[in-house]
Amino acid sequence: MAIALSGLSGWASLGCWLLCGVHAWYVLPKAILLSAEGAWRGLRHDEHGWQLWSAGQGWQPIQLLPDSLALPLVIVLRFRVPGRRFAGSVCVPCDALRQDQHRRLRVRLKFSRRRWAVPG
Q1: Do the Cβ atoms of 101 and 75 come closer than 8 Å?
Q2: pLDDT for 8-46, tens place per residue?
Q3: Each residue's pLDDT tens digit, 85-101
Q4: Does pLDDT of 7 surpass 90?
Q5: CA 102 – CA 92 distance, rounded (Å)
Q6: Which residues have CB under 8 Å from 74's CB, separation 6+?
Q7: Is the Cβ–Cβ distance between 115 and 50 less than 8 Å?
């Protein structure tokens, strides 16, 4: 809507709409619908540290980053996969898990001693 109201010329407006469409095409399957093979669908913590699961790569060790956020309504995990340059994030809303599971995850994230440790 902002693009339509911006007063851009026709070609600039069309280019902006095209970029928005390409971005949606790229982001929706992986981040929203979780249908892409690279979409993170599982989280676990064991003696080896924190790990995320995707259909394409299986369990991957991760390093949680200090800007992760654990609130009663939502948990935002910021992480880095070893060997990758950029950090990723996963949002876990309160209705994605049972209430007691969501609370346990929040407590573990807040009070885990080695939560920022690099895997390996």
Answers
A1: no
A2: 888 888 889 999 999 999 888 888 888 888 888 999 988
A3: 999 999 999 998 899 99
A4: no
A5: 9
A6: 91, 92, 93, 94
A7: yes
In contact, 109 and 70? CB cutoff 8 Å: yes
Q: What are the tokens at 117? A: 């440790």
Distance CA 105, CA 100 (A): 9
Question: Among candidates 91, 83, 85, which has minimal Cα distance to 39?
Answer: 91
CA 116 from chain centre, in angstroms, equals 17
Sign of CA dihedral 35, 36, 39, 44: positive
The predicted model scores a pTM of: 0.74
Distances in Å between the Cα of 17 and the Cα atoms of 10, 11, 26, 43, 101 are 11, 10, 14, 35, 41
N-term to C-term CA, the chain? 47
